[in-house]
Every structure is written in C-alpha cells, then in structure tokens.
Write a structure and sequence with these properties.
Layout: H1 3-11, H2 16-31, H3 35-52, H4 69-72, H5 79-93, E1 109-113, E2 116-124, H6 133-149, E3 154-164, H7 171-187, E4 191-198, E5 209-219, E6 233-237, H8 243-251, H9 258-261, H10 265-276, E7 284-287, H11 292-304, E8 307-311, H12 312-317, H13 321-329, E9 342-346, H14 348-359, E10 365-372, E11 376-381, E12 384-387, H15 399-404, H16 412-438
Length: about 450
C-alpha cells in the first residue's frame, strides 16, 4: 500500500484529522503496530506529504493529462500501450541517435562500436508474479535474453534490479535471484551487477515485489523487425508461454500448466541459429510477446511497411498443446496473448535451413505465413483473409482482466490528444534543462 499516495489523495477530500485516523487504521491493519507507533507513522506521512507539495518548481512538476495508466491500457499490450510506446520512440528519435531504438519498435536497442553491434534489452518482471519470485526471475531473464538474441546477438551479460516493499520477506531476493541464475547457468551467461531496494522506502507497506532484468549481447549483424521483405515466409517455434501464461495458470488454479512454461526452448532455438551462421541470411527475428501475434504482427507491418499474412490453423497448432487446451477452456484468444514463440522472417531457401537447424536441437518450428506488398496484418481462416488487429488490451488472461475487459474507451481520441500534449511538454522541459546546463 502506497501511504504517500493514499495520504495525498485523502488530504484533497478530507480534513487532516480525519486523514490521520484513516492512516492510523490502515497502518495498524497492515503493519501490526500498536496505536502509539501507528500514530507516529501517520504524523510523519502527513508532514512529508504537506512539505513535498506545499511549493512547486518547474523541474518538480509535470503536465497532468488526467489520463490514468490503467484506463489507457499502458502495460496491457494493446492499442493504448502501443500508442504510448510510439510516443516514447518519438521522444528518443529527437535525442542522441542509435542504430536501433524504441522508435523502431524492437524490444532491444542497438548501438555500433567499431565492427560490433551491441544489443541491450531490459524487461520488467510480470506484475502478478510478486509472490512467486523464482518463476518471476526465470521468466524475466529468459525474456530479456530473448530480446537480445532475436537481434542476432550472442548474450554476454545479465543485470538485475529487484524492489520489494517494506513488509516483504527478505528470502524473496534470493528466490528471485535463483530464478535468474537458472537461466544464466543454462545459457552460460553471467549475472554481473544489479540493485536491490525497497519499493518507496518507508512509504510503501505490504509485500509487493517488482523489478527488472536486463541483458547485453554482441553481434556482427542485426535482424530488426523493419527488415521483413516482400516474398519472405514466416516461421514460428512452439510457444508454451512465459510469465503471462504462468500467471493465467496460477490465477485460474491450473497450476500444472506452469511447468510447461519452464523451458529454454526459445533460447536453444535462437542459439542454434546464431551458431550456425544463418543469422546473416535472416531478415528479421522477433518473439511473440507484445499482445501476442496480433500485437507483434501489427508492429512488424508498421515498421517494415509490408503486409504480414498468417494461417490461423497453422498458428494454432504451433501452441503447446497443454497451454492451448487451457486457453481454449478459458476462452482466451491465443493470438492476443504472449505465447513466447520465436518468429523468423526470411526467404524460402533460408527457411528450409532454419527449420533443419532448429529441429536439430529438439524444438518444433513450422511455416505459418508470409510477407507481401501492402500494409497491415492479416489472418486466413477457412479460406477467408481478414485483417488481424490488436485489441485495446491483450486477451484478458486472468479473472480480474476479464472484469476490466478489452473494450476501446469512447474518449480514446481525446485521451490521445492529451498524451500528445504531455509528450510536447516533457520534450520542452528536457530542452530547457539541456540548454541551461550547456551554458559555460
């Protein structure tokens, strides 16, 4: 629980004395303090909040859109989330240039040093895996390593950032790191650095854990999304999911499916491709994560300025059977959720060699579609070709997500306009600070 945010919001609506009593009650409830200690905490919280917001400076304030993260779907791998990430890309494109950045909609960024490309990626742990630190660490490490490897890069180092709220058990740190190290050892990549902090210091009480894991890789060529070419075929490896599918299984009480996600098939397939030298012949590689095939296909089509076409039944058959059974029983669209397949886009001759190499390490891979002239993404089902679009949010894969729903807000365009304004204001603030600090 965020005591600072709670107090700040309540002080806008109630008297200080009432807020004090409400804080005391919440603190005693969560921290198991006696009233005397809870009173001291409440008084300190109120004092800090009043002091922090009693004055303002331009550097401390930010433009308020009135648009909340949840209502715009940020982090929910759909239309709203993609819009925000494109805006981040726009901001980055106006700053120091890289070979590849968020503006290119790849999950890893790339800089070039001499003849080497250095790929960098960072992924946040799944927000619903807070009480399951080992698999949270396992899946986020696998994810960031994937992001680097689909760029054609060999991973050389991993770093982590762990944040646990004030009441979280210290053992979460070690269980989480064990999950990270499991992937690192299997791939012979060292965990080299990191940070361990509390969420919000003393101001956030409870047991929630969050954080991120990053990976650095090197290569002599890259395989970005924008390189997909007309006439290419699309290959997918078997997808058993990662953090998202594990979350679905846990919160629907289907825990046996979690085990299906504990594998490094994707990394083995990528590594086999890299070691074989086929990377130089592949146009694009990606992982099916951001809103599933629906989301990734839309982004690849957008940056490559090509049309991607998928065969529905072939895509369906490449999903791990136990995972697919669970998704269909729960009426979750497998094309709108992260299944963690490796997507390879290349010419037909190269595709034959890719399939041979990937299958040699025991990983299923099939041709599921093609690239053609045009724009957008399409699905062929029952002989009928129709547009394949991301929803406002990825497929609702937990009970609470089904309640929240996937409907597009009626005021979406107005929210986008406000977000555009926030981007302009943020850029203006950055430019003002840069100008000031550049002065001799």
């Amino acid at each position: 629980m965020d005591l600072e945010g709670y107090a700040r919001k309540l002080l806008e609506r109630f008297s200080e004395s009432k807020v004090r009593e409400m804080l005391i009650e919440r603190i005693m409830e969560i921290k198991d303090f006696d009233r005397g200690k809870a009173e001291k905490w409440a008084d300190s919280v109120i004092l800090e909040v009043k002091n922090a917001y009693s004055k303002t400076l331009p550097i401390l304030s930010y433009y308020r859109t009135g648009v909340k993260m949840g209502e715009f779907g940020v982090g929910s791998r759909g239309i709203g989330d993609f819009y925000v990430h494109r805006k981040i890309g726009e901001m980055i494109s106006k700053s120091v240039k890289a070979e590849l950045s968020s503006a290119d909609l790849d999950d890893a960024g790339v800089v070039k040093v001499g003849d080497l490309y250095i790929s960098v990626s960072v992924d946040g742990i799944h927000s619903r895996l807070s009480e399951f630190p080992f698999i949270a660490g396992f899946h986020v490490t696998r994810a960031c390593m994937r992001d680097v490897m689909v760029m054609g890069a060999k991973p050389i180092a991993v770093f982590s950032d762990i944040h646990i709220a004030d009441d979280g058990d210290v053992s979460k740190i070690f269980d989480h790191i064990a999950g990270i190290l499991a992937v690192c050892e299997l791939m012979n990549v060292p965990l080299v650095s990191g940070s361990t902090l509390r969420i919000g210091g003393d101001m956030v009480i409870g047991e929630r854990m969050t954080g991120a894991v990053g990976c650095i890789g090197i290569s002599k060529c890259i395989t970005p999304r924008k390189n997909a070419k007309d006439g290419d075929v699309i290959l997918l490896t078997e997808g058993a999911g990662g953090g998202t599918i594990a979350t679905t299984a846990i919160y629907y009480g289907m825990h046996e499916v979690v085990d299906e996600t504990i594998n490094i098939d994707f990394l083995r397939a990528c590594n086999a491709i890299i070691e074989s030298g086929l990377v130089e012949r592949i146009h694009s590689m990606s992982d099916v994560t951001n809103g599933g095939i629906r989301g990734d296909a839309e982004e690849i089509a957008y940056v490559s300025k090509k049309a991607l076409v998928f065969d529905y039944e072939k895509c369906r058959k490449i999903v791990n059977p136990k995972v697919l059974k669970m998704l269909e029983e729960l009426e979750i669209d497998f094309m709108g959720v992260s299944i963690d397949s490796l997507m390879v886009i290349c010419d037909e001759e190269t595709a034959k060699d890719v399939k041979k190499v990937v299958r040699s390490v025991g990983v299923r891979i099939e041709e599921v579609g093609w690239v053609e002239k045009g724009e957008g993404a399409y699905i062929v089902e029952g002989g009928v070709k129709k547009p394949l679009k991301p929803r406002f949010r990825e497929s609702a894969y937990t009970p609470i997500k089904k309640v929240v729903g996937e409907d597009v807000p009626e005021d979406l365009n107005e929210m986008m306009r406000k977000i555009d304004k926030a981007v302009e204001e943020a850029i203006r603030k950055k430019e003002n600070v840069v100008r000031r600090l550049k002065k001799p």
